[in-house]
Design goal:
alpha/beta; 5-stranded mixed β-sheet; two-stranded antiparallel sheet; 14 helices; about 50% helix; about 10% strand
Length: about 475
């Protein structure tokens, strides 16, 4: 009997252990299922993101309409501008008309009768239109010159002549403008020239135009690189870029009045050191990518928009996790108040000392928010990221010219991202050279209020380098 009791006790202990292990595994399975569901939702949202904007707007409008219908006592607001508002129309041209056309009445628009008498009353209607002209063919007849000083014999270049080229500088400039300012691929540029102007140009010739423009503009690109290196503040971002079958990285460096693009085979800090040197003596704004930790700077500002986006994702994907939800809401509120202090500082409502003190107060408040670790994996990752960059979150309240986010770099990078979707990058090192050079010049010209077409015209026409420098490096206030 005693032996049976011992066996029964042993069996119960084994059963209890197996039950506990089963419950532990069951809890682990539930946790993994929840994580898998969150990942599935994230993946679904990322795949549907390009198509959900209009849907979300429609849902919002439908919800607002439903809320309005639930309150019949409130009169719905009529769509459009208020009744009796002053209409808006296109501004008239700022110069005299190129031609004046007198229109006499010939037929009645109502009964189509031709028995018409002209009255004294007149009406004026001004419109602007395009003139599509055919290509201008110019033949340069050049007399050979002889230099009485050195004995050289030469043929001079005529005004508007592109030496050794069968296509003139205006067409070369327009092709470069369409490619790098409008983001049109070579084949479409060829169709535009053929359809609008009857000028047949092969895609290979367009590539040659790019190469000429890039070679002419490269000295100015190098000057932009020097100015970026010694700027007081800088925003940096990067994205993938294709060179044929190779995956490279397109880096953008945005200073106050210059934009530099560099296409490199690496996404590491080596590219930063190659462009800026081992130490950047200014304030460097970026996201939290680890490569930016490898270069020293006077100060660094991390992008608050990336933190806020991560907080929104916590609210979206973990609505039942009260701890993560409270952390995300508190973090967004903290950064919202910090941005308001920045606006007050720029408007002169607070002094430099008050802004600096506010930065210290926000850092202490953030420290308190980050004291306790989180069980939620994504929330803990965000917490660790904020701790790692503790001294780099409120630099914008210590330097007046520094922005709280990295929007300047992202905006400068967006045209190249659009171009990548259309052209799939470049096919050769020459294409990479052309893209980083001409995109740097075009975006720098935009920052200095210069029309990129004027810049392309000067590069294609071989204008005085000082004139091109004025377009790129001296703000045009006209």
């Amino acid at each position: 009997m005693e032996r049976l009791k011992v066996e029964n006790r042993d069996l119960r202990r084994v059963f209890d252990q197996a039950t506990a292990a089963f419950q532990e595994k069951e809890a682990e399975i539930r946790r993994l299922k929840e994580e898998a569901e969150v990942l599935r939702r994230k993946l679904r949202d990322q795949l549907q993101q390009p198509f959900t904007k209009d849907t979300e707007q429609q849902e919002t409008a439908a919800n607002q309409e439903q809320e309005s219908s639930d309150q019949p006592e409130q009169k719905r607001k009529k769509r459009g501008a208020p009744k009796g508002h002053r209409g808006a129309t296109r501004k008239p041209p700022d110069r005299a008309p190129d031609r004046i056309v007198l229109v006499n009445p010939c037929q009645c628009p109502k009964c189509h009768s031709g028995n018409i008498s002209a009255c004294q009353e007149t009406e004026e209607h001004t419109q602007e239109d395009l003139v599509i002209i055919r290509p201008l063919i110019t033949r340069y007849v050049k007399k050979r010159g002889y230099c009485r000083d050195c004995g050289a014999l030469f043929f001079p270049n005529g005004q508007g002549e592109r030496p050794n080229g069968y296509i003139g500088p205006v067409a070369v400039a327009v092709a470069g403008y369409l490619r790098y300012a409008i983001k049109i691929p070579f084949d479409s540029v060829r169709k535009i020239f053929a359809g609008l102007w009857g000028l047949e140009i092969t895609p290979a010739a367009l590539v040659g135009f790019d190469k000429q423009l890039a070679n002419t503009g490269r000295p100015f690109y190098e000057q932009i690189a020097d100015m970026v290196k010694y700027s007081l503040e800088l925003n940096i971002d990067e994205t993938s870029w294709a060179e044929g079958p190779l995956i490279k990285w397109l880096w953008t460096f945005v200073a106050r009045s210059q934009v530099l693009f560099k296409i490199a085979s690496s996404r590491s800090g080596e590219v930063l050191r190659d462009v800026l040197g081992p130490v950047y003596n200014g304030v460097l704004g970026s996201d939290c990518f680890s490569a930016y930790n490898t270069i020293a700077a006077q100060a660094k500002q991390k992008c608050l928009a990336h933190y806020e986006r991560a907080a929104k994702e916590l609210e979206k994907f973990y609505p039942g996790d009260q701890t993560a939800l409270l952390f995300a809401i508190s973090l967004r509120d903290l950064f919202k108040r910090a941005r308001q202090i920045k606006r007050d500082w720029l408007e002169g409502k607070i002094t430099d000392e008050q802004a600096g003190q506010q930065a210290l107060d926000f850092e202490e408040e953030l420290d308190q928010l980050l004291e306790t670790p989180f069980q939620n994996h994504d929330t803990e990752n965000l917490r660790c990221r904020l701790i790692a960059h503790r001294s780099e979150n409120f630099i914008f309240l210590r330097y007046k010219q520094v922005e709280p986010d990295n929007n300047r770099a992202e905006r400068a990078l967006r045209p190249s991202v659009v171009m990548r979707k259309i052209t799939y990058g470049n096919n050769s090192p020459t294409g990479v050279f052309n893209h980083e050079t001409l995109m740097s010049l075009v975006e720098t010209a935009k920052l200095n209020n210069t029309n990129p077409l004027d810049l392309m015209m000067s590069l294609a026409g071989g204008d005085d380098p000082d004139k091109i420098k004025t377009m790129l490096f001296v703000p045009n206030t006209s």
